[in-house]
Amino acid sequence: MKDFKTDIYFVSTFKPSTKSVDLLTVETFAGTVCEYADMPKEWTTTRGLYASFRYEGNWENYPDWVRNIYLIELPARGLARVNGSDIELFYYNEDFVEKDGNDGKRKLTAVCSH
Predict the structure, then answer these.
(1) Helix (H, G, I), strand (E, B) or coil at 71
(2) Three-state DSSP class for 72?
(3) CA proximity to 91, closest of 35, 8, 31
């Protein structure tokens, strides 16, 4: 994100794996909104009503947050995930910095809508 200095979209679709009933096949399209591109590509998703959630926190907590959305937040609101795509928008932040954690590892902060 620091290289492109723009918001980045990730659109992911999930299908049962042909290899195992315990696996999923995930296809992800990554892109930005830009005025020009050497190799432009467009991606269109299904129209519909989407729930939107905002996350701001450390990258290592993001997978747990997403899991919480599907297992707790959606059911609590009487909603369920249907076949279709997940759209994630990671916001570019000019002041984006890596921080050292207590364990000495670099911590990255994510701000996104899911």
Answers:
(1) helix
(2) helix
(3) 8
Tokens coding 25: 């096949």
Helix (H, G, I), strand (E, B) or coil at 74: helix
Only one residue has tokens 């899911």, namely: 114
The alpha-carbon radius of gyration of the chain (Å, integer) is 16
Tell me the per-residue pLDDT of 51-87, one tens digit each, with 9 for 90 and over.
888 888 888 888 899 999 989 999 999 998 887 788 8
Please provide the CATH number assigned to the domain covering 8-34+52-113. 3.20.80.10
Q: Measured between alpha carbons, how far is 51 from 94 in angstroms, rounded to an integer?
A: 27
Report the 3 state secondary structure along 8-65: EEEEEEEEECCCCCCCEEEEEEEECCCCCCCCCCCCCCCCCCCCCCEEEEEHHHHHHH
Q: What is the pTM of this model?
A: 0.70
**Alpha-carbon dihedral angle through residues 42, 47, 49, 53, given to the nearest 10 degrees:** -10
Largest CA distance in the chain: 45
